[in-house]
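re: ur question from yesterday

yeah so i grabbed the chain u mentioned. its 155 aa long if i counted rite. heres the sequnce exactly as i have it in my notes:
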Amino acid sequence: MNDNNAHIIQLDGPYLDILSLRQSGLCCSQIIVKLALNSLGRENPDLVRAMAALCFGGGNPDGTCGVLTGAACALSLSLGNDPERERQDPLLALLLDELYGWFSVTLKDRHSCSGNSCADILAVSPDKRACTLLMIAALDKLHTMTTIAGGKESP
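ran it thru and got these structure tokens back, copy pasting raw so excuse formatting
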């Protein structure tokens, strides 16, 4: 099912945040984590800088899209209320499975893309429009997942 509204970008809220962060030089994985941190009322420049290692498929165009890897990191970051806790949340594996499945379906249904690499996505969307739409959708998905998982404030 190809929803025509899936290709419309609202020129407010997350779009403007994403555009601003992209203009400042951040990549998809960094943007997702920075916005997740913002929604949690936290800052962590070291983490945002470290997320650059996941940019553009981890430096390999055939690597996994930074929106997905960034969202996976943001999900882990968002679980639990203790920012000092380093252990993995027990729900993480289950939620990551849901996130990866959702991402694959979203790519296929909304963008006619069968792979999850940067090269796959840019082949169907060389203008990176799909990247922006995926970031907006991923932020919505993260909010839903973390709210349901713990009834907490989330990205």
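noticed a couple things. The radius of gyration is 15 Å. also The mean pLDDT is 87.
anyway ttyl
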